[in-house]
Design brief:
single chain, alpha/beta, Rossmann fold, 5-stranded mixed beta barrel, binds hypoxanthine
């Protein structure tokens, strides 16, 4: 894939200082945009090689600016496999970030709660994931400029950073969850049987994003942190049908907490 054209385009637009920290804003979490100072906004459709976001409620722009006095580059809207892209296309921006020199990435998402102790509105720090039932984002010829053929996945999510952000979540929202995120390809929500199976396998939350990005970021040596907003209980956990409306409503309800968490985390 032609990453270099996108890299050159972004450098040209934002000047030479490229942030070391990237943030991917999940469903309903784009509100962080308002907090970013001195921002330069680049619409995805104008960036060479970038796919175009297709989900309603998901924007499609790259924002470079400052948050908590730190330079950041944020994706407002991400690419999902269920939209029809090849999985490699969904992580195109993450590889571009790597070539731009980004060292840390904060991935956020909306997720369904599988763990019976969780409640909608909780925040969960991801400490590991399950994705062996989905096609690997690293399938195909290895791109050696990013990383090795068989990358270690023992610690995808940085242990020290998990501790730090967990303490902030506890402070900002009262309770901090930490657990395993199961990646499902979507776009259907899961069935109750699938959720029971995922629970047996050790999953605490389920969603349709983040893991391909985390794998690619880890592959290229970035420090990865991921936070899930539990927007609903997963299928069959409670007597309730699932909808994207519920996901958006819950994300909207806790958006201010979410903003505080990310801002405080960046301050540290
Ligand atoms: N399942 C999958 N993805 C999700 C869910 C869910 O219950 N909630 C938000 N994203």
């Amino acid at each position: 894939m032609n990453y270099q054209e996108a890299v050159n385009f972004i450098k040209e637009k934002v000047g030479t200082t490229i942030p070391e920290t990237a943030i991917v804003l999940g469903s309903g979490l784009g509100v962080l945009k308002e907090e970013i100072q001195n921002k330069i906004i680049l619409k995805y459709e104008g960036i060479p090689g970038f796919p175009i976001s297709t989900v309603e409620g998901h924007a499609g722009e790259l924002i470079v600016g400052e948050l908590s006095n730190r330079k950041i580059i944020a994706m407002n809207g991400r690419f999902h496999y269920y939209e029809g892209y090849d999985v490699k296309q969904t992580v195109f921006p993450i590889r571009v970030f790597s070539l731009l020199g980004v060292k840390n990435i904060i991935l956020t998402n909306a997720a369904g709660g599988i763990n019976l102790n969780y409640k909608p509105g909780d925040f969960m720090v991801v400490n590991d994931h399950l994705s062996f039932f989905a096609e690997s984002v690293l399938r195909g010829k290895n791109e050696d400029e990013f990383g090795v053929r068989f990358p270690d996945m023992t610690e995808v999510y940085d242990k020290e950073e998990i501790k730090k952000i967990k303490a902030i979540i506890e402070k900002c929202s009262g309770v901090a969850r930490e657990g395993v995120y199961a990646y499902m390809k979507g776009p259907c929500f899961e069935t109750p049987a699938e959720i029971r199976a995922l629970r047996t396998l050790g999953a605490d939350a389920v969603g349709m994003s983040t893991v391909p990005e985390a794998i690619v970021a880890k592959h290229s040596g970035m420090k990865v942190v991921a936070v899930s907003c539990i927007t609903n209980m997963a299928a069959g956990v409670i007597d309730n049908k699932l909808s994207h409306e519920e996901v958006k409503e819950t994300a909207d309800r806790v958006k201010d907490q979410f903003k505080e968490i990310i801002k405080e985390y960046l301050e540290q």
